[in-house]
C-alpha cells in the first residue's frame, strides 16, 4: 500500500521485564526492535518511524543500517499516548499511518498486509483495528483525515481514548492471527516466545 508511514512505539520503560529492555532482547540474530522494523519495512512501501525514549541511544544503535528514522519523545515517562502523538507529528502530513508496538515478535509481513487490505476494502476514512473475541490488537491503521483529531486534546493525545469515545470513526476487522494480540512484556512471556509457546499465554 502506497503512502503509508509505519510508526513503531519503542519509548517505554519496560518495567515489567525487570532489568532488561525487552526491545533489545534477541530475536534470532537481531534485537527484537530491529526485527520489528524489518517486518514493517517489508510489509509497506513507506517510511518507518521508531519513537524512542527509554534507552534511546541503545535503540538507535540496534537500528543502525535498517533505514528506519528514530524520533525521540522527551515526554516518554508520561506514557504511551505521548509517544503516539510524537510519532503522528513526525509522519508525513498526507500519509495514512500504521501504529504498532515494538514487542510483537509473532507479527509477520502477511499479518500487516492483511490489515492494510481490510482497511482499503472497507471505509478507509475510519481507523482500522484488528479484533477477535472482543480483544483489540495492534497495529492499527489511522487515515490522514483523522490524525488531527487524535492530537486535538493535549491532555489525552493518541488513539486509546479517541477510539473508545468516537466509535463512529472506528472499524474492527476479524483478523485471527496471534501476531496481532501477543506481545512480550514479562520474562515469562519472553521465555515462552523462545520456547515457541507464546500463543499459549493468556
Beta-strand portion reads 15-25%
Order of helices and strands: EEEHEHEHEHEEEHHEH
Assigned CATH superfamily: Spore Coat Polysaccharide Biosynthesis Protein SpsA, Chain A
Radius of gyration: 16 Å
Major beta sheet, strand line-up: 5-4-1-6-9
Shape: globular
Cα distance, first to last residue?
A: 32 Å
Task: Point out poorly predicted stretches.
Answer: none
Q: What is the CATH architecture term? A: Alpha-Beta Complex
Whole-number tally of structural domains: 1
Structural class: alpha/beta
* Total count of helical runs of at least 4 residues: 7
Number of strands: 10
Whole-number average pLDDT? 93
Look up the CATH topology.
Spore Coat Polysaccharide Biosynthesis Protein SpsA, Chain A
- The quaternary structure here is single chain
Q: Main β-sheet, in a few words?
A: 5 strands, mixed
What's the CATH class, please?
A: Alpha Beta
Amino acid at each position: 500500500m502506497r503512502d503509508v508511514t509505519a510508526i513503531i512505539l519503542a519509548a517505554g520503560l519496560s518495567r515489567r521485564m525487570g532489568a532488561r529492555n525487552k526491545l533489545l532482547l534477541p530475536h534470532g540474530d537481531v534485537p527484537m526492535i530491529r526485527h520489528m522494523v524489518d517486518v514493517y519495512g517489508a510489509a509497506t512501501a513507506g517510511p518507518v518511524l521508531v519513537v524512542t525514549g527509554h534507552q534511546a541511544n541503545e535503540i538507535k544503535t540496534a537500528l543502525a543500517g535498517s533505514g528506519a528514522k528514530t524520533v525521540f519523545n522527551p515526554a516518554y515517562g508520561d506514557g504511551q499516548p505521548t509517544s503516539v502523538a510524537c510519532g503522528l507529528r513526525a509522519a508525513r502530513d498526507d500519509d495514512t499511518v500504521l501504529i504498532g508496538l515494538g514487542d510483537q515478535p509473532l507479527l509477520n509481513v502477511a499479518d500487516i498486509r492483511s490489515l492494510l487490505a481490510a482497511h482499503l476494502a472497507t471505509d478507509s476514512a475510519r481507523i482500522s483495528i484488528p479484533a477477535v473475541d472482543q480483544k483489540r490488537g495492534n497495529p492499527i491503521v489511522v487515515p490522514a483525515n483523522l490524525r488531527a483529531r487524535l492530537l486535538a486534546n493535549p491532555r489525552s493525545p493518541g488513539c486509546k481514548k479517541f477510539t473508545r469515545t468516537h466509535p463512529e470513526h472506528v472499524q474492527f476487522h476479524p483478523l485471527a492471527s496471534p501476531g496481532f494480540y501477543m506481545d512480550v512484556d514479562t520474562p515469562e512471556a519472553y521465555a515462552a516466545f523462545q520456547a515457541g509457546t507464546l500463543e499459549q499465554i493468556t
